[in-house]
Amino acid sequence: MTCFAPEDRVRVSPRHLGGAGLNRLTDALSPLIHPFGWPRSATPRPGASPSTAPTAASSSTSPPSDPADRWWTVAHHEPYWEVQFCRQTPIEAIAAVTQALLQLVGDTRHAERILSASTLTETADLSAWTTTTKGPATVFPSPDEHCRPVHEPDTEVPWRFEPSLFDGFDTHWTATLTRDAPEQLVTQFFAHLASNDPVERVFNEVPFLVQLDDGALITPASGATVNPPHPPLRRPDRPGARRPTPETMTATSTLPERLLALGANFTRHHDVLQSITLLRGPNPAGNLLRHIPAIQSLAREALEVSDALRAAPRLYHSPDVRAAMERSLQLAALATFAADHLIDTVDILQNAAHARRAEAVARHGEALREAGRRTTLAGRLTSLGAEDCLATTHLLACELHRQRLAPAHRPQAFSPAQRTALEAVAAGHITLDRLLDKPQVQRGGARVTISTIRSLEARGLVHREPCTLVLHDERVHLTPDGCRTLAAALGQPRSTTPATERPVARPTATATRAAAR
């Protein structure tokens, strides 16, 4: 859980993950309009913001319908070239380009403070960005490898910048420079993008996945010294060195086991949100507030699994491995959105509680209805989390077995009924009714008996926990040994013939004689 409030001012590094800084859009144009006297003209397009137009180049900004569309355009007419930026492009790098436009029209004032004295390659070396060649293209990966500028000189758009945090929501942005764009603009843009100095943002402007990512450094912009919520970005000691690779497993669990444990936590979270007592009592906002850190930890755990997969040594990023990484990111995004809905719910309930006495009764009922709606939506966002974790575990376990990277753990022998029960438990489908002494399967067509559950308990593969759901006394979860056993079994091909199947009966003598006639 982060220690920052939504309106806190923070400093974010690296810059390419800091977001646009939308509260500072004017920083890109104000230096041109005020100190240098560039004219300001309105564009005829409805909803578009002002643009500046010198004699040879123009700069404009227009809010598009899609955040991935172009937001800024800088164009030159003779010869024609164009620079475009999407919404999440850091405003500091855009301002570096617009201020460099002054030199194109012969205005050399303050040039020593505006222009970078280094070439692009020198800037990359100084900032620990590497340089690699792939055929005709040159790539400049950042130390965290989330930003990879590409230069292809023989194309119409020779420069492309497309950073993202594992293609996560609202972390992707694009900047392009067409043929004949001055190298000075590229150098300026890259120098301000690769700078080790952090950028200042309002915390709620920082993309959600960046807020949770351990590779981003987020610190207070001012005030007392406090411990930052994330460790600083590790940079290589020399250009060309790769970043350190984190461990792919903890001291006691592999990545498939961690996914199964994450699925159990999603089930626990969903049970809490389904509880009818959550919004009752004297302090419903407090009940929700106590649960928010748990769901935020789900997002962090899912991101850690994706990071560990990406950095796993000797693991080939096959389509199945990439799918596992993407599914982990989706789980993190869904948990983050669910946490946001719960935070909004707390605000609604607290505002209703502080209403004047005359309005208290009406506002309290309305607030409870809206809180119930948002809580239900948060539950729906994560209701399939355990099933998704099980499916991802199966995908990853099979791929690790195929690449011969699976841990040397031989799965215990168990019957098809026991394996079916283990998978149903991992998917969060099994609860127990103590009165009837029988398991209840909430979803799926699996048939699970109480004797099967007891046999798995006797082997230490499952255990029971109290369940908050109505008419469901206990929830069945996998133990650490159960996670290890199921993860190992999922990587093995499943037998098509159950071991308990009876042999085919011999034909009777009467049938044999009838066939012979």
Low-pLDDT runs: 42-67, 223-251, 496-507, 509-514
Measured between the Cα atoms of the first and last residue, the distance is: 81 Å
The pLDDT mean sits at 75
- Strand segment tally: 17
Q: What's the total helix number?
A: 15
Helical percentage? 40-55%
The largest sheet, given as strand count, sense and whether it forms a barrel, is: 8 strands, antiparallel
Tell me the overall shape. Answer: flat
Overall structural class, as computed from helix and strand content, comes to alpha+beta
Rg is 29 Å
> Approximately how much beta-strand content do the residues carry?
5-15%
Structural domains: how many: 3
With strands numbered from the N-terminus, the spatial order across the biggest sheet is: 4-5-6-11-10-9-8-7
Question: What is the structure about, briefly put?
Answer:
This protein has helices at residues 30-33, 91-104, 111-114, 120-126, 183-194, 208-212, 255-274, 284-311, 319-353, 357-382, 385-402, 416-426, 450-458, 480-490, 509-516, and strands at 9-13, 40-41, 51-52, 57-61, 70-76, 81-86, 132-134, 137-139, 150-151, 159-161, 175-177, 199-202, 217-220, 430-433, 438-441, 462-466, 474-478.
Describe the structure.
- This protein has 517 residues and is of the alpha+beta class.
- The protein has 3 domains: 9-205, no CATH class; 248-407, Four Helix Bundle (Hemerythrin (Met), subunit A); 411-494, Winged helix-like DNA-binding domain superfamily/Winged helix DNA-binding domain (Arc Repressor Mutant, subunit A, Orthogonal Bundle), CATH 1.10.10.
- It is 41% helix and 13% strand.
- The chain is built from 15 helices and 17 strands.
- It has helices spanning 30-33, 91-104, 111-114, 120-126, 183-194, 208-212, 255-274, 284-311, 319-353, 357-382, 385-402, 416-426, 450-458, 480-490, 509-516; strands at residues 9-13, 40-41, 51-52, 57-61, 70-76, 81-86, 132-134, 137-139, 150-151, 159-161, 175-177, 199-202, 217-220, 430-433, 438-441, 462-466, 474-478.
- The strands form 4 sheets. The protein has an 8-stranded antiparallel β-sheet with strand order 4-5-6-11-10-9-8-7, with helices on one face. A 4-stranded antiparallel β-sheet has the order 15-14-17-16, with helices on both faces. Strands 12-1-13 form a 3-stranded antiparallel β-sheet, with no helix packed on it.
- The relative contact order is 0.09.
